[in-house]
Amino acid sequence: MSFLESVVALLSIAILLLQLARRTKAPYPAMLAAAGVVLALLPQAPRIHLDPHTALPLFIAPVLVDAAFDFPLTALRRYWRPLVALVVVAVLLTAAAVTAAGVYLAGLPFWAALALGAIVAPPDAAAATAVLSQVSMPRRSVTVLKGESLLNDASALLLFSVATSAQAHGVVDGVLALKIALAVPGGIIFGILVGRLFRWFTPRLHGTLGGNLLDLVSTLAVWLVAERLGLSPILCLVAFAMTIARTANLSTPPRARIHSYAVWDTAVFLLNVLAFLLMGLQARTIVADMSSARLEQAAWFSAAVVACVIIIRMAWLLSYNRLAARYRFFRGALEPAPFKQGVLIGWCGMRGLVTLATAFALPADFPQRDLIVLCAFTVVLATLVVQGLSLAPLVKLLGLNDQSDLSVELASTRAAMASAALETFAQETGPAAEHWRFALQARETAANFEAPCVKLAQWRALGLKATRRQRTRLDELCLDQAVGPDAFLIIQEELDFTEVALGNDRERHIEEN
């Protein structure tokens, strides 16, 4: 089986597994991991070599920008204390524990063990959000987890670069220490500058195929340039994406935004599929080349690392939860998080694409690379299966599945926006003004959940009914050749935008799942 045939086969399986995941409430990364293992066990599975230098920008850069673009700076300022506890302390504790296990249980050199600790330390954004989208839980917990998944990659990859550089040089000298110290602020500053430049000229490409392609190319280019300059590419990309996102709501046309979301969602899913395929094939090669004694040792060591990453995270999260509940210093102005939320966040430690890509990035001559890669794949598979499949039942067991405050937040935000819009044409009269006044007043009063606004529901229902009838009539006109293909596509897109706005597909998907 060739590489292309393997990709097509796994993509086909992935589509079926995605539908199965939606119906069984199981996380699709766990199913992808299992599918990658099954496909790799086939006798015809090819041997694939991936350039280590290519792995990080190819797999991590697009996922990182996608997550950073959607995470607002205001949330970063508000939740910085719990984020520091997760992004810095949890990563360092996990890396330290795994490093000790690697040195004493597997006989790894210190820097190689530290590299393994950095690889398995960060929970993955795609894995966490894929699982969290299946349950209804407090938005504060979701926000903190998304922020953690975005920022802990920076601390883990910085630690990874230190370990691999020190292993290559034999020691962390003054030159290497200075280079690492300058990489962090330099990456942030460079990302902000490039983001402002990008924000200046991208409006000229909105609505074109080149605009969507530029998003992908610029993501990889920023990573590669930052890496060439000796800066932190991951912090550079985070700063780059957040800088663009600050004005994207007003500067990006709606059509371009819808197209961009579709492209990025597909790209992230495809990267997950390819990563699990490649890791499965690489694990197959490693296992085939290992002796039975070596394989048994690797299995025991991998099991110890899996237990280590789960226990350390849970122990630290529960400890921090109690400290924050008792001392204001640890939580700031935030309300103390209930103990149940601490348990839930502690259990959300699924590893995924970031761990896989970082393991790929190990140099070919790295000490005991086969053991480290196999251990990383085992951690990903075990955490996705054990934690991922049990997360939804845990949410229900803790009684957190009905505590989502998304609908309240949406209604209050829409009411505030409607009030501002009503002020803009308070003096306007006529049918057009009355049409918009009715729709905005319905949204303004819908925030009162004690007296549900019937007018808003009726307005949506009638709008959807009218829109769908227009769509049927458009098809009839097309069959009668009364409308040309260009006009058909333009009007079809107008109906799509209208139906999306009336149907609230994205809101309903989040609330139902």
Shape: globular
Total DSSP E strands:
0
Low-confidence stretches: 508-513
C-alpha termini separation: 37 Å
Helix content: over 70%
Strand content: under 5%
- For the residues shown, what is the average pLDDT? 79
Biggest sheet: strands, sense, closure?
none
Radius of gyration over C-alpha positions, nearest whole angstrom: 25 Å
Number of helices: 21
Structural class comes to mainly alpha
Element string (H = helix, E = strand): HHHHHHHHHHHHHHHHHHHHH
Description:
The chain is mostly helical and 513 residues long. It is 79% helix and 0% strand. The chain contains 21 helices and no strands. Helix 10 runs antiparallel to helix 11 (233-251) and helix 19 (454-479) packs antiparallel against helix 20. Residues 508-513 have low confidence and may be disordered.
Helix-strand blueprint:
Elements: H1 3-24, H2 28-40, H3 52-69, H4 73-78, H5 80-105, H6 110-120, H7 125-132, H8 139-169, H9 174-201, H10 209-228, H11 233-251, H12 254-289, H13 292-326, H14 339-347, H15 353-360, H16 369-398, H17 406-424, H18 431-445, H19 454-479, H20 485-503, H21 505-512
Provide the descriptors you would attach to this structure in a database record.
mainly alpha; 21 helices; disordered C terminus; 513 residues; single chain
Structure, briefly:
The chain is mainly α. It has helices at 3-24, 28-40, 52-69, 73-78, 80-105, 110-120, 125-132, 139-169, 174-201, 209-228, 233-251, 254-289, 292-326, 339-347, 353-360, 369-398, 406-424, 431-445, 454-479, 485-503, 505-512.
